[in-house]
Amino acid sequence: MNYLAHVFLSGTEEDLSIGNFIADHVKGKAYLNYSAAIQKGILLHRKIDHFTDQHLLFKKNVSLLFPQYRHYSRVIVDMFFDHLLAAQWSKYHSDSLEKFSSNFYTLMDQYEGELPEKTKKMIPVMLDNNWFVAYSTFEGLGEILYQMSQRTRFPSNLSLAITELKENYSQIEKDFITFFAELQAFVADEMRKL
User: Fold this and answer.
1) For residues 131-150, b (16+ Cβ closer than 10 Å) or e, as one string?
2) What is the per-residue pLDDT across 2-32, written as a single tens digit (0 to 9) for each?
3) Is residue 77 part of a domain?
4) Residue at 8 is within a domain
5) Quick one: CA dihedral 143, 146, 148, 150, positive or negative?
6) Cα–Cα distance between 45 and 137 in angstroms, integer?
7) Is residue 30 assigned to a domain?
8) 6, 28, 47, 163 from 44: Cα distances, Å
9) Which of 65, 64, 83 lies closest to 133 in space, CA to CA?
10) Distance from the CA of 85 to the CA of which of 3, 15, 95, 183 falls in 20 to 30 A?
11) Containing domain of residue 82, as a range?
12) Structural domain tally of the chain?
């Protein structure tokens, strides 16, 4: 899952949300440098990623894209699933996506001193393009994928993946709905353990 899903799955705990958001930029045992509450968010993020990577429906969608996008396929499916969460947001959250996004962007500003340098460098682009809201449309998702493709080491053609999403939308959507319900149940169980 990508940024929107990780923040959404954190619930209302601010430290947990920040930890879950920054986790990709906190490697190995570096998470121990953070407060206990942020550590929980980082560890939750890692558990979500492990659950996702092992899930048959996620693997199925990665396999669909693998012939053309190779090792970028996992990232693309993460983005597709964030798109589907954003596009169906009202089914999952009582606040509008715009309000949820604005609240989280404000929270990031409050926690600026806790953010890793890589996260700090990404935030201006994220805010300028309002990623969470942009995920909800093909155009917005395509633009984010294009921005990502400009930063990849090898030619990735990430923005072309929108064609795959459009052509396989109903099946990817069906897989997402089943997968995400199972992920939510998994996260609820993990949060009880934290």
Assistant:
1) bbbbbbeeebbbbbbeebbe
2) 899 999 999 999 999 999 999 999 999 999 9
3) yes
4) no
5) negative
6) 25
7) no
8) 9, 14, 5, 32
9) 83
10) 15
11) 52-193
12) 1
The three state secondary structure string of the chain is: CCHHHHHHHCCCCHHHHHHHHHHHHCCHHHHHHCCHHHHHHHHHHHHHHHHHHHCHHHHHHHHHHHHHHHHHHHHHHHHHHHHHHHHCHHHCCCCCHHHHHHHHHHHHHHCHHHCCHHHHHHHHHHHHCCHHHHCCCHHHHHHHHHHHHCCCCCCCCHHHHHHHHHHCHHHHHHHHHHHHHHHHHHHHHHHHHC
What pLDDT, in 10s, does the model give residues 26-59?
999 999 999 999 999 999 999 999 999 999 999 9
Domain membership of residue 18 (yes or no) is no
Q: How remote is the C-alpha of 184 from its chain's centroid? A: 14
> What is the number of other CB atoms lying within 10 angstroms of the CB of residue 47?
16
Block residue for tokens 């940024």: 3
Alpha carbons 76 and 85: distance in angstroms, whole number: 14
pLDDT greater than 90 at residue 116: yes
Residue type, 191: M
